[in-house]
Amino acid sequence: TYDPDDQIKITPRRPSSPMSGDPLRLKDLISLTLRREGDTSEEAEKRKTRDPSNSFVTGKVVCAVSGKAISTQPVICLKKSGQVILKDVFLDVVVGGKDKKMACPITGVRIQKRDIIQLQKGVSGFAGSSSGTCGVVAKKYKPTLT
To answer: Which has more confidence, 125 or 74?
Structure first.
């Protein structure tokens, strides 16, 4: 039987932004340059051009400046160049550098405060892996007699 309240939901043409709920625009998206452990320049260029023969990527993502593996450390993304850098390396090299002007350490492109995005920290599936309000914290300790 037909029920007029049972209608098919129409999916939106554009996905909504998780922050504002407004439809996403192409200019809101940022292309990131992720470097992997053991990457040669040829492999990085192949991935940059989205070659279908290199669709499976292995290795950890590393900092563009220091080459350290990124796991759960705070990470900075530079909007103009798309480089992903560890926050402590960024503070040492870019902010605490000799020059008063801020520039991307890889490309040399000048950046402003609005071009710096702090990426969300990755966590594991383990309940106690995150810190702060999301982490699991024992609120009450009840000693037992054994």
So the answer is: 74
Question: CA-to-CA distance for 70 and 88, rounded, in angstroms?
Answer: 12
Pairing of strands 116-119, 75-78: antiparallel
Type of residue numbered 49: T
Using pLDDT thresholds of 50, 70 and 90, give the confidence band for residue 48: low
Task: Give the integer Cα–Cα distance in Å for 94 and 103.
Answer: 7
- C-alpha 136/C-alpha 127 separation (Å) is 6
Q: Which residue has the tokens 């309240």?
A: 5
Please classify residue 113 by burial: count the beta carbons closer than 10 Å to its beta carbon, then call 0-12 exposed, 13-18 middle and 19+ buried: exposed
* Tokens representing residue 106 in the block: 């890889």
Give the model's pLDDT for residue 118. Answer: 92
Candidates 35, 43, 42; CA nearest to 65 is: 35
